[in-house]
């Protein structure tokens, strides 16, 4: 199993050199404590916890999994103790509201911690990760009483949270959900129904679990317009705020699944469980999007983590494994063969993983800064602009990063050859764990419809223009930089083409709405490669500027430039296929009669 090492040098490069985090934090309201020394200390301590505590439990969780009994669900060996260390370290409260026990640090710092936690042990990280979503939902939509009762406990980490959306018959089509909420005389509700695929739905790591549940009130409108949101605790709170009597909610069974074995994925039964309405009646889906958007950025981190973990494992292996000779002559003449890292195809796989991991880190941290501004920007104009950019980037980050992160996990396995298929090396676990990323929190297809349909076409392209303008300004500012020409020219070209393709798809959709669904996934993937081109061009500029100014880290910055060059020459051309395919027309998908598929 690879020993995870937090990539601290690259984390600091993205935060401090690419995104100017010190200046960014100084521009926020209430972020005075986010000084460079404080941020550095947080990241250093977080790295130690992830490397020394969580990483050794990753394979344990995969092998043992969770166990169900009528008394409850038991997590793998060491998970509960690790969570207690996590709580004692104050990690759950880091970015939360100080009015309810939080430390009030910017959300982007929390994303750095989430990256390290997720890469070290994704299954374990899902437990506190889901609590962040519950915290954000109650903070945004809960009453003051609900905040005092639940938010304080979630922020301290004493209680954890879940999101309960999906049901056996409806999957992502939440408009057809059947869970009912019957009003009680005391103002509470009796929640009855079954939810499936509930991550961290039952476990032994905390004394209480706060379920955020979608259900229908009597007489509610059909479809998504008739869904309300409820807080349903596993144990009902006592007047003093402690966990009291057991509520009528239970884990009926654990799902047997491909990966993330260390996380309890539960079938949850609500048998007249007592719940409290959160937010307005019949506006539950609107409120739940607070949770879902948090989860989508979190899932994007899974793509980064899969690429980073695969890269770390395969890089170490490729330096040690001896096989064949370099075609240009022996590179290890004293040995029986050369290390496989000398072979071009192995370099292709390693560089793909490196380009994906470092590009993903830049994208997630950029999104994280927009979250900061939305929450703590000093002007309404700043907050509105950041919210627009975040809304545009979220489906790209979630879907594109999990797609190419999974590709990178597979490449990590491939570098090992036959050993990659063997469990002890950890590469096949990384592949299995990563596969869910493209499915939960909205599949790639759903994210693609959100991007092309809601974010781009329904705004007449305004959200796209908000991003392409950033790219245009960057290209214009660096048009005369000869050293950057190899990056700026293709970046400017794809930025221009992006708008042209959007217009063509939009025109086709005006004649046939099916064109949106037919083009959407290719459009999202194209958009992802375009966003990466912008980020890699910016990273190349930072590295080139450092080289000109003089540095003792020439190898680090040269590697940035060389990885950028690899990306532009060997990965960005993939966008050409997506451009052609998105214009192929819906008829190529829909003309075949259903009966003909079986012929």
UniProtKB/TrEMBL annotation:
Residues 467-593 form the Acetyl-CoA dehydrogenase-like C-terminal domain. It catalyses: 3-(methylsulfanyl)propanoyl-CoA + oxidized [electron-transfer flavoprotein] + H(+) = 3-(methylsulfanyl)acryloyl-CoA + reduced [electron-transfer flavoprotein]. Coiled coil: none annotated. Residues 163-271 form the Acyl-CoA oxidase/dehydrogenase middle domain. Residues 282-450 form the Acyl-CoA dehydrogenase/oxidase C-terminal domain. Pfam families: Acyl-CoA_dh_1, Acyl-CoA_dh_C, Acyl-CoA_dh_M, Acyl-CoA_dh_N. Residues 68-158 form the Acyl-CoA dehydrogenase/oxidase N-terminal domain. Belongs to the acyl-CoA dehydrogenase family. This is 3-methylmercaptopropionyl-CoA dehydrogenase. It comes from Marinobacter santoriniensis NKSG1.
């Amino acid at each position: 199993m690879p020993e995870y090492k937090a990539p601290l040098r690259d984390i600091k490069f993205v935060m401090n050199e690419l995104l100017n985090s010190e200046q960014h934090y100084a521009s926020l309201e209430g972020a005075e404590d986010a000084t460079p020394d404080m941020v550095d200390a947080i990241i250093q301590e977080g790295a130690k916890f992830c490397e020394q505590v969580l990483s050794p439990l990753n394979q344990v969780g995969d092998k043992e999994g969770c166990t169900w009994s009528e008394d409850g669900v038991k997590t793998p060996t060491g998970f509960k103790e690790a969570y207690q260390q996590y709580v004692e370290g104050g990690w759950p409260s880091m970015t939360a509201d100080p009015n309810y026990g939080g430390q009030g640090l910017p959300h982007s710092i929390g994303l750095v911690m989430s990256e390290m936690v997720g890469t070290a042990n994704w299954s374990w990280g899902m437990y506190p990760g889901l609590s962040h979503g519950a915290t954000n939902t109650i903070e945004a939509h809960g009453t003051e009483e609900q905040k005092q009762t639940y938010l304080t406990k979630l922020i301290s980490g004493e209680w954890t949270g879940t999101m309960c959306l999906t049901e056996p018959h409806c999957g992502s089509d939440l408009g057809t959900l059947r869970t009912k909420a019957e009003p009680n005389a005391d103002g509470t509700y009796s929640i009855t129904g079954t939810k499936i695929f509930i991550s961290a739905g039952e476990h032994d790591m905390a004394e209480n679990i706060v379920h955020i549940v979608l259900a229908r009130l009597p007489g509610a409108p059909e479809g998504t317009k008739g869904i309300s949101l409820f807080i349903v605790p596993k144990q009902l709170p006592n007047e003093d705020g402690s966990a009291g009597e057991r509520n009528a909610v239970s884990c009926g069974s654990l799902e047997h699944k491909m990966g993330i074995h260390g996380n309890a994925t539960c079938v949850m039964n609500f048998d007249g469980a007592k719940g409290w309405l959160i937010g307005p009646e019949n506006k539950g889906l609107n409120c739940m999007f607070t949770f879902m958007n948090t989860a989508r950025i979190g899932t994007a981190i899974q793509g980064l983590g899969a690429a980073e973990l695969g890269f770390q494992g395969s890089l170490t292996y490729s330096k040690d494994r001896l096989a064949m000779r370099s075609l240009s002559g022996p590179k290890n003449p004293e040995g029986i063969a050369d290390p496989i890292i000398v072979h071009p195809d192995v370099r292709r796989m390693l560089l793909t993983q490196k380009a994906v991991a470092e590009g993903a880190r830049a994208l997630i941290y950029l999104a994280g800064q927009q979250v900061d501004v939305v929450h703590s920007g000093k002007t309404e104009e700043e907050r509105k602009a950041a919210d627009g950019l975040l809304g545009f980037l979220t489906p790209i980050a979630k879907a594109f990063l999990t797609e190419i992160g999974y590709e990178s996990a597979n490449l990590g396995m491939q570098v090992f050859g036959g050993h990659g298929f063997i469990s002890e090396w950890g590469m096949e676990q990384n592949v299995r764990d990563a596969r869910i990323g493209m499915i939960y929190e909205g599949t790639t297809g759903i994210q693609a419809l959100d991007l092309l349909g809601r974010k781009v076409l329904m705004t007449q392209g305004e959200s796209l223009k908000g991003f392409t303008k950033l790219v245009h300004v960057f290209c214009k500012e660096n048009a005369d930089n000869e050293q950057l020409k190899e990056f700026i020219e293709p970046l400017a070209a794809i930025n221009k083409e992006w708008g042209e393709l959007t217009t063509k798809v939009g025109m086709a959709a005006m004649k046939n709405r099916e064109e949106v669904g037919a083009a959407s996934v290719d459009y999202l993937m194209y958009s992802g490669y375009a966003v990466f081109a912008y980020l890699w061009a910016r990273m190349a500029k930072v590295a080139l500027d450092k080289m000109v100014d003089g540095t003792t880290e020439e190898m680090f910055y040269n590697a940035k430039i060389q990885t950028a060059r690899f990306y532009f020459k060997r990965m960005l051309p993939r966008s050409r296929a997506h451009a052609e395919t998105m214009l192929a027309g819906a008829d190529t998908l829909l003309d075949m009669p259903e009966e003909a598929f079986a012929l």
